[in-house]
Amino acid sequence: MDEKIEKLKEWIDDSDNIVFFGGAGVSTESGIPDFRSQDGLYNQEYAYPPETILSHTFFMRNPKEFYRFYRNKMLVLDAKPNAAHRKLAQWEKEGRLKAVITQNIDGLHQKAGSKEVLELHGSIHRNYCTRCGKFFDAEYMQRAGGVPKCECGGIIKPDVVLYEEGLDMQVVSKAIQYISRADVLIVGGTSLVVYPAAGLIDYYNGKKLVMVNKSVTPKDAGADLLVQGSIGEIFSQI
């Protein structure tokens, strides 16, 4: 076993207060494209850039085009949890992991069995009528054609944080509590360039900050342990 993975295994075995902070790279191994990699959404042809389509202004002005993109690229319901999701759920079950804090909206952590999941950017599995507040699941959104409407006539909106929208401060506050109290903080599958989410790891006060990524991030220099590679493959070895 690689020396760095051996060290990570040692830290995990010795801890009952691990927090995981993850991004798109955790789900790419389940076939869900990210925004910034070579095969990500930013590198695919579309009428508008993803960050324009996934903005609050665009949703309000052009919901039909928003939903065409959303269903094609974001509403991935057949994806299965991968080795990373399953390992995190296992650690939680064993009493080692306190929480998963994710920037992903796919619900794969919950599908793998994780219970304490803080979704910073919301979830495709929660959708609500902008007029009456009625709840709709992801399957309804997939079946609905064009702009999904409630029986009251209101447009249904995914409970995902669009560009120009703020994060849920209750979720942020809870994430800060978990991170600030953690013994081991594992950060994986994230470029750490999307703020304010990326700034949350600055609240970590411990001496076991682990970065697990295929590529470099702006926070690598502050890591106590840097493990480069596929997060699923690395977690499978622990």
The arrangement of helices and strands along the chain is: HEHHHHHEHEEEHEHEEEH
Give the overall pLDDT as a whole number. 92
* Beta-strand residue fraction: 15-25%
Helix content: 25-40%
Q: How many helices does DSSP assign?
A: 10
How many distinct beta strands? Answer: 9
The oligomeric state is single chain
In CATH terms, what is the architecture of the largest domain? 3-Layer(aba) Sandwich
Q: Which parts are unreliable, with pLDDT below 50 for 5 consecutive residues or more? A: 36-43
Radius of gyration: 18 Å
What is the CATH class of the largest domain? Alpha Beta
User: What is the end-to-end distance?
Assistant: 9 Å
Helix/strand-derived category reads alpha/beta
Compute the number of structural domains: 2
Task: Write out the strand line-up for the largest beta sheet, numbering strands in chain order.
Answer: 3-2-1-7-8-9
Enzyme class: transferase
Keywords: Acyltransferase, Cytoplasm, Metal-binding, NAD, Transferase, Zinc
EC number: 2.3.1.286
InterPro entries: DHS-like_NAD/FAD-binding_dom, NAD-dep_sirtuin_deacylases, Sirtuin, Sirtuin_cat_small_dom_sf, Sirtuin_class_U, Ssirtuin_cat_dom
